[in-house]
Each structure stands twice: as structure tokens, then as C-alpha cells.
Amino acid sequence: MRPATRRTVAVLFAVAAACVAGGAEAQVRAKADLRCEQASEVLLYDCTVGLVDSRTNEPLTGLAVTIGADMPSMAGAHSVRPVVAAEGPAKGTYRFRLALEMHGDWALLINLSGATRDRVVKVLRFEDGRVGEAPPPRR
Ligand SMILES: [Cu+2]
């Protein structure tokens, strides 16, 4: 390799490394703690999601949070409209009401925008009067 070429390659590596490091620093990843319980009607659920910075565990406040829902086992069969979550009362918690179309395992797509942009997917099993962990999908 000629010296000039070698220098160019070294510079490119430095730029790539800086991009990776800068990206990792700027990008806050969210961790979500999701709880739902049945509301007054069948298939209606009241949920609270607690959002924290996955590295520092600091609550993520002041975000715009929307939630979509789909059934992993029935891709495309449902069209639950995304709902907007309201912040509070505790720091970094967001509440929303979900109207599902049937009982079973639903993947909730939690979209964060504002100071932190991220999407977290949580799968829960929604049953009549009970919401629990969904077992891992069978392959
Ligand atoms: Cu379904």
C-alpha cells in the first residue's frame, strides 16, 4: 500500500469508529415495564407502561408515547388503532386503554418519540379477567 492510501484508510477507520461511538452515546434505549388489567368491559384493558433508560434506569419523562397492538400468531388479521398514552402520575409512567378484538397473545408496540426515540415490543396474554406473561413462541 502506498503511504497516501494507508493514511486514507486510517482516517476512514477513525471516522467509522467515531460514528459508532457517537451513535451509541446519543441513542438512549428504553426499557419498558408493562402492566395491564381488564377494565369494566370484556376485551377492554387499562395498561400502564413504565419507561426507563436501559443504561441508567432513569425514568423517561415528557415523551410522546403511542401503542399499537397485533397478534403475532395472526399477522395482518387485526387492525387495532394505535392509541396515545397519557403521562403520569408517577415519573416515566404512561397510561392507556386498549380495546382488543379477541383474547390471546398480543404484541404491544410501544413507540417513543421526543427526546428519546425508540420502539419496544412486549407480548402479553390477554384473557377474560386476567392478563399474564405470554409463553415464548413455539418453533
Ligand atoms: Cu387474533
Biggest β-sheet description: 5 strands, antiparallel
CATH architecture: Sandwich
CATH topology: Immunoglobulin-like
Q: β content, as a range? A: over 45%
Q: CA-to-CA gap between the ends? A: 50 Å
Determine the fraction of residues in helical runs and give it as a percent range.
Answer: 10-25%
The radius of gyration over CA amounts to 20 Å
Number of helices, where a helix is a run of at least 4 consecutive DSSP H or I residues: 1
Written description of the protein model:
This protein is α+β, with helices and mostly antiparallel strands. It has one domain: Immunoglobulin-like (Sandwich), CATH 2.60.40. Helices cover 17% and strands 46% of the residues. It has one helix and nine strands. It has one helix spanning 3-26; strands at 30-38, 44-53, 64-70, 80-84, 86-87, 93-99, 104-113, 118-127, 130-133. The strands form two sheets. A five-stranded antiparallel beta sheet has the order 4-3-7-8-9, with no helix packed on it. Strand 5 and strand 6 (93-99) form a beta hairpin. The structure holds copper (II) ion (CU). The site of copper (II) ion has 6 residues, from loops.
Helices and strands, with pairings:
Layout: H1 3-26, E1 30-38, E2 44-53, E3 64-70, E4 80-84, E5 86-87, E6 93-99, E7 104-113, E8 118-127, E9 130-133
Antiparallel strand pairs: 1-2, 2-6, 3-4, 3-7, 5-6, 7-8, 8-9
Residues 71, 74, 77-78, 102, 104 line the site of copper (II) ion (CU).
Question: What's the quick description here?
Answer:
With 139 residues, this protein is α+β, with helices and mostly antiparallel strands. It has 1 helix and 9 strands; from the N terminus they run αβββββββββ.
